[in-house]
Amino acid sequence: MVLHDPADVAGFAGLVRPLLASDPLSHTVTLTVLDGLVRQGEPAEVLLSLHEGHELVGAALRTPGRPLQASAVPVDHAAAVDAALATADPALPGVTGPTGPAEAFAAAHTSRTGAERHVDRALRLFTLGVLAPPTDVPGAARRAGPADAELLADWRVAFGVEEGMPWVEPRTPAEVVTAGIDSGAGEVLWEVDGTAVCQAAARPVVAGMSRIGPVYTPPEHRRHGYAAAATAAAARWALDEGAHTVLLFTDRNNATTNAIYPRIGFVPVHDAVELSFSENRH
Question: Is the pLDDT of residue 239 over 80?
């Protein structure tokens, strides 16, 4: 096991990206987080690789304020990784990833520390089969530009509030949106009569994969099919950019979104979870 210099993101990416790219569905978030760090030249909080002999068998990373990305931590290495982070990352706030590795790490962490685990988000990953855009939704899609950053930033914050996810990024929402636009992300707005009514963001293609999210429609514009239309437009953008895998997450408990996306061609892949840790006060 190797703990890498958090400032050497590019070196770490060169080491672990082939492992992550071998299964882009399982490692979609880890891949895009790592790609974002490299593009923006920002340090991580934790960078860790796992080895058996000369073979790389796993990896984990964490960015400031966010949970550990554990998609590439083998279940049987969870306890060893947690033990290594006891010193390297004592303020670890949580863990996220596909349910299996995330829950295994959480079990190891709570066993060692006595902390309590909380389910912050129960997610379902979908992948695009055959795209079937809705044909009965008024309006049209367009790519967002720098002039739209303020609107998109406000919508990012509103989305987080509705999802119970307070803003924890060290950068402001406007800075995050602007960086995404500058990096070539597919920020798509759906407009009706010149008014933006919905947005869907597709990340730049990494390892042949692009993931869509967030998708947000202000309350006053809901129940018109705009989210499905904007998501389909973002998926079309990703395919045109060369993605052969287009993904998105839904809230497992949201019956509406879990019904919308299959209608435009998405099929479920696996469940994932975001867990947080807190001190056990009992």
Answer: yes
